[in-house]
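Weekly puzzle thread! Below is a chain. First person to post its structure in token form gets bragging rights.
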Amino acid sequence: MPSSKDKSNATNLTNKYPIPILMKQNQLSLSFAIWLSIAFHLCLIILWAIYEGFIFAKPKNINPDIIEVRLEDPITKISSDKQLASMEAPSAPTAEEWAFASKYALKNSKGYRHSFGQQVRSMMGTAIEGPDQGHVRFRIEIAPNGTVAKVETLWKTSDKAEQLARKAMKSMPTLPPTPTGKSLIFEKTISFSPFANDDSPIYSNDCLPDPPAFNNPFAWDGKAQQEIKKNKPAEQLSPEALAECLKQLPQDSIEGVTAHDQRQLNQWGSNKLKQVK
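Winning reply:
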């Protein structure tokens, strides 16, 4: 039980600080603490969002056409002590190879297209590992008499490769006429790299018909009568035409078959097949 002295002290304190004033002071202190806590946690959330990249300040006077790339790992420079890989230019096609190419008309003059690319690469010099290595793809038009009529760059990964390839095509020797006697238009990728070369093609499947281009059978313009369109089957050669075509096929080289099989393995190979049990 509280003594008479304690009751007297409580009475004096109540008289000095009324209860409403004490409650108001407590509410103000509590509100201040809550708002301070909210502001503190909000600052932490904003700092975390900026650090994670969800919020970033937009820089001023930045060209919108410039694409900024953020690299996770810094690019390390090639050590000067490392011996750089290199590959000499292949030899130019022989007269025998050009004679075959000028008569082989199957698959858009496949032999002529390959010999043309080999001729260009033979005039580009040695490819050395470094910033100048790369690839360039052209759309080329060759006139019926064998002169280069038009060259258009489709894409490139090396300015040096494009420069050397264009220089080679401008100084090309006299080429034989095209196999069909018409202008030959094709696309060709020139590899100027110590890790890639233009392998010999294989001709064993050149008599097979080209698969038709795929068209969506359910495509509809919203106006015409809706119907399911069937894709056209591949055109089959008659037995007589197939026999005549097979007579034109040359014997594939060991290098060409090996390169073809390696490309198929790289394209369709599975990492699971390489696992050691």
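Puzzle host: Confirmed. Bonus trivia for everyone else. Strands lie at 86-87, 127-128, 134-142, 148-156, 184-192.
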